[in-house]
Structure formats: structure tokens, C-alpha cells
Amino acid sequence: MKLSADDWWFCLKHLRVEHGAGCPNKDRMGPYATEAEAAGALDRARARNKAWDARDEED
After folding, report:
1. Which domain range does residue 33 map to?
2. pLDDT tens profile 26-40
3. How many CB atoms lie within 10 A of CB 22?
4. In this structure, are residues 30 and 39 in contact, taking their beta carbons and an 8 Å threshold?
5. Residue 32 needs a FRET pair 20 to 30 A away by CA distance; which of 3, 22, 39, 55 works?
6. What share of the chain is helix, strand, coil (3-state, %, to 5)?
7. How many whole angstroms separate alpha carbon 45 and alpha carbon 51?
8. How far apart are CA 17 and CA 37, in angstroms?
């Protein structure tokens, strides 16, 4: 994946959306195509974790 200055990220250190260069990638989720997608990063991660946990309980 080629990174771009137009990419959006969610910074886990500062708990905010970043555009382009920002905190080190190890501290960020992304990249995302839009600011809205980046802003929803934690919600998507929570939902995926919940689904994975439910699937583990079924097994």
C-alpha cells in the first residue's frame, strides 16, 4: 500500500484524527481515505472485537 499526504489517520496517543504527516505510524490506526472514516476507527475496532469475542464463545 502506498501512503499519501492525503491519507487520514486516527492517533492512539492523542485520541484524535490526523491528516498526512503526524505521529509515528506505530501510534496510529489507518490510513483511511476520509476524515470520517478515521474518526470512526475506534468504533469499528470495538465492533470487530465484540464480533470476534462472540464467535470465540460459540466455539
Report:
1. 8-58
2. 999 999 999 999 999
3. 18
4. no
5. 55
6. 45, 20, 35
7. 10
8. 10
